[in-house]
Each structure stands twice: as structure tokens, then as C-alpha cells.
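Collaborator request, handled under Task 6.
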Amino acid sequence: MTLDHEVVFDLELALGPAEALDFVRDVPRSLARADFLRSLRVEGDDPAIVAAELPVNAALFGQRLLPFRSELRPTVRGARLVGLPLEHDGPGWAWVDGEAEVDPRPGGSRVRYRFHVQVHLRLPEAERWGGHALLRMIQYTAQTVLERVTAAFPEALTSAARDAEGAAALAAGG
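C-alpha cells returned to the collaborator:
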């Protein structure tokens, strides 16, 4: 079973463009408040690989932690996550692509975030109508949880950005 979800939002920052670029390229800092991700880590640096696990509830099968790996590529205006395929024997995996673009604004910056999350769940084959109904229930539950998790991205990034703004203000003496 494959589920897709897109997240697009803008974030107004009191950080200058250079500071905003640093923020979006620093995954541990920008996702510091993303407590819905498990085991977030950045491996290597050229290219950096962002890895974590997304918790997804699959109805009667309980919560599943679905790993993902994405390559972090700096761009002229921000950074891009490029999903990487996984060889994974567990209950499923996720594919996460995304982009953050920084635009200068008076008094700060605006960052446009775009994420595409695709969840791949391994489920047993349904052979009878009861099995089909169960799979639909699992699909609905997993899609709802995925939407809730991806809806938490804007709040987590906003909170981390406010932390960065506060740190920048302290460093500037204000």
C-alpha cells in the first residue's frame, strides 16, 4: 500500500537571508522541534544524508516506525531533500522529498517549504471481502496519521525558527 501527502507552507522569519539559508541547511537545528520524527540524524557531509523514522499507525497492526533516507543538497536559494530508496525488510518505509527556498524580505526573510512524503506499507493480501474492508480501514487510519504528522511540520519548523531568531537577537546584543 502506498500513501502520498504534500505539505507546502511559507514561514516569515526575522532572520536575514544569509542566516535563513544557514537555518534551512542545518537539519538538526531546523528540525530540532520535530518530535514526531524518531531517530533523526545527519550522516556524512558531501552529500549529507538525512535519516529518521516516521511513526505511522496502521489500525489493528499498531504503530509502525517507517525509516527514510534523503540526500541533502544545498541550492542557491536554500536546500533540497532528495528521497533515496531503501532496502528494508520491515513493515514499510517512507520516501521524503522536500525543498526550502529563502527569499529576502524587509526586516528578514520568507522561506517556502515544500515536502512530498510517500509511505510504503507492507500488508497481507486480502482474499475476501472482510480482508478488503480491513485493508481500507488500515489505509484510512494510516492516511489520517500521515496527514497529522505532515501537518506538524509547519509548527515544528516555526518553533525551531523562533529559537534561531532568539539566538540571533542575543548574539547581536538585542
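The cover message to the collaborator said: "The longest strand covers residues 92-105. The chain is about 30% helix and 45% strand. Please let us know whether this matches your experimental observations."
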